[in-house]
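so im writing up the methods section and need the Peptidase S8/S53 domain-containing protein record in one place, dumping it here so i stop losing it
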Amino acid sequence: MARYVIANRRAGKFSAAAKATSRAEIATALATMSFATIIHDKDPGDPLARRVTVVEADPGAMATYKAGLPHDVIVEPEIMHYREWPPPRDVMPFRRQGAASAAVGAHPFVISVTGGGQPLPFATVKLYVRGFGSTVELTGQTDAAGEVPFQIPLGYQPSVAVVAPLSAFWSMVVRGAGLQQVIECPPLPFDGPLGWWHQALGLDGVDSGSGNGVRVGVADTGLGPHPDLAHAVAVGAFIDGAVLGADQTQDVDSHGTHVVGTIGARPTSLGTYSGIAPGCGLFAARVFPYAEAGASNADIANAIDALSRTHQVDLINLSLGATEPSEIVHDAIIDAAERGTLCLCAAGNDAGPVNYPAAFPEAVAVSALGLAGWGPPGSLSASRLPLDASLFGRENLYAANFTSHGPQVVCGAPGVGIIATVPDRHGTVGLYAVMDGTSMATPATCGALAAVLSRDPGYQAMPRDIGRSRAARGILQASLRDVGLPPSYCGRGIPFAGQAVV
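--- predicted struct ---
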C-alpha cells in the first residue's frame, strides 16, 4: 500500500462556475474510489475552495483508476519536502542513522562541547563516520555536562563532527584527530541590529516601518515563541492533510522561527539583529509534523491556500524543497499568483540542480551567497567557500559551496552565517542562533522585496490578481544588482533594498 494526495485543480479557473465544477469532479472521483482508505479529507465548507484528500491505496489499482479521471482531478504520490541544513561538502552524500541505534560490535565515542569554557547543553551534534565506501550520519544532543555519546558501527571510523549550539555560539566543524578533543564553540557577535546580510542588501540602518503595508507568509516548521516575533500571526498547522488551530503553530524545530525572524524580527534586546523588513505583516504556518520529518505536498498546498486566500499575503516564503515535482503544489503556487501572491522558494542545499518548488517557473528560486572572512576559523559558516574561483564575486561575496544552481535561479542572497531568532527553550527567552542555507537566503530576499514594495504606492494600490504578483516579480528583478557571479548561481544578482524601485 502507498499514500496518495488527491486535489482538484484551481489554477486558470477564473469564474465561480469553473471552480465549482472542478470541486464537484473531485467529489465524484472520491465517491467511486472504494479501493482506497481515506487518511484525511480536507473538505472546506466554501464550495470554491480546494479540496485535498490523503488516501492509502494499492499502487496498481490507483494507476488504473487514475487513467480514467478528468483533467481537473490531480492524483499523485505523497511527496515529502525537506528543509535540509547543508552539511560539510566533504561528507556528501551520506545516509542517516539514529545515534542510539548501534550495530552489533559498535564501540562508544563521546564528544564534549563547550562555549566560553563552560559545558554547552542542548547542542545538536552530527557525527559523520566512514567505512565500507560510505558515510553515515549519527545525530545526538549534549546533556547538562555538554557531552553526547555515540555508538560507532563496527567497521566505521569517526571522520567529521558538526556542533550546532542551541543559541549564542558559532556552529563548529572538526575533522580527524580533533574529534578526540573537547570542541569549543566561540560566541556569536551580538553587535546588531545590522549584520553583513543587511549591508549586502544595501541597508545602512534600521527603519522600523520598512515593509509596512506588505503581508508576508511563511510555511515552515512553525513560529516561536520569541519576544521579537510577538507581532507575527500564528496561522495554524497543516499536518497529514488536517488543518489544526493557531495554537498548533509553535515551532517543532528552530528553522521556521529563524526564517520568520530574518524577514521581520523587531529586536527587544540590545545587540540582537533586526529583520530585513521589521514593519511588514508576518503570517506563519507550520507544515512539518516534527523536527526531522518532511512536509507533504498536501500540507504545503493547504498552507499556500490559507496564506494566500484567507490571509491575503503578498509574498510566501517556502524554505523547503524536494527533488520530485508536485503537480498539486505547482497548482497552488499558480493559483496563489492569480490572486496576487508571489512565492519565493529556496533553490536547495545539495550543490546540484534547483529543487522543487523553486524550479517551477512561477516561483522565485533563490540561491545562497556568503561573505569571505565571516565566521571564525573552524566554524561551519567559514567552511562554505567554493573551490571554483569563478564562484567568487565582487565585494568578497561568493556562491556557497552547497547552493543548488541552474537556469531557474532568479537571484542570490545572503545565506551563510545568518544570525536570527530561534524559539525560547529550556527556560531561556530571546534566543538567537546562526544558520546557513538557501533557507536563509530566501527570507533575506523576501524581506528585501517587502521593503521595496512598501515604498511603491503603485504596487500597493493594485488589485489582488495576477497583475499584482507579476508586478512584485518585476520589481524584484529591477532591484537586483550584479555582483559578478555566474547567472546559474546568482541569477541577475542580489536584491538592493536601500532605495525605492518604482
